[in-house]
Every structure is written in structure tokens, then in C-alpha cells.
Amino acid sequence: MNLLPISIVSFLFFLCLHSPFIAAATDDDLPTAYSVLQSFNFPVGILPKGVVSYDLDESTGKFHAYFNKSCSFALQGSYQLDYKSTISGYISENKLTKLTGVKVKVLFLWLNIVEVVRNGDELEFSVGITSANFAIDEFYESPQCGCGFDCDSIKENLGRNPFVSSV
């Protein structure tokens, strides 16, 4: 009776369990929603900070991104943005389509952003009836829920007591 094949199988099994080169896939191994955006040639800043999870059907491009709660903030100019706790749509190279869960306030109207297309160094945001183009370098950093990109000045103002003189 030859025990050599059993020994080899046992050794290989042990090696697989303890090898640093073979690891089981976990949620920690998944790329972040922000790195997935980059893999489709989008800057991370089209998503605010705080995505807690996402799912992506790689065969169709259908995705969902999840926040703990809805997320609103203002950007320079007159734009107010609102992200629901779940946003969804389809992603492909340079294109986000059939978006749901993202709104922009223009003047007094809230409009759904339904598509984002990258054209070279510009991003075109469509609300269906019209669209607006922005330079891509405005989206290299993700805004923060509540304060957008102006969080430092909000923290400064919160730390000041208007009833106490600094003189």
C-alpha cells in the first residue's frame, strides 16, 4: 500500500490553508465604490464621502450604492445636491445612465440627475430636459455630507462664540 499520494494531498491542503499567496475573498477584498468609479474613468468626487457598501452586476453594469442615511450639501454657486440613502443606475466606460436617487436644486426646482457622461476633461450632468458641463478637476475630491467642500469654515464658525470678544 502506497501512502505517498495521501501525504502529498495532505501537504497541499496544509499549504493552501497557510499560504500567504492564497486568500479567501471577503468584503475587505472588494474595491471601494470610489475605486470602481475610477475603473470606469470617473473621478471619485461625483460620489460624496460615506458610501458604506455597493453592489455591481458586472455583466450589465447595474449598480447600487448605499449610504447610512440621505446626504445633502451645497456647492459653490447656487447648487444644492441631495443623495438618497440608496442610489442606483448603470455604469459603463465614461457613462452613468438611468440614475436614481440623486437630485440637484436649480433655482427653486429639484431635478433628478439621470445621466453623467465624461467627455475628455469635462463631465456632462443631464437632468433629462437639459444638461450642464463641468471641468473634471472639480471632482477629484469627494464632498462631505452636510458641508460639501466647505467643512473647515463651518468647523471654524462652530468653534467661535459670538458673545465673547477676542480683544
From TrEMBL:
The keyword Transferase does not apply. It comes from the Eukaryota. Keywords: Signal. Residues 1-24 form the signal peptide. This is Uncharacterized protein LOC104738767. It comes from Camelina sativa (False flax).
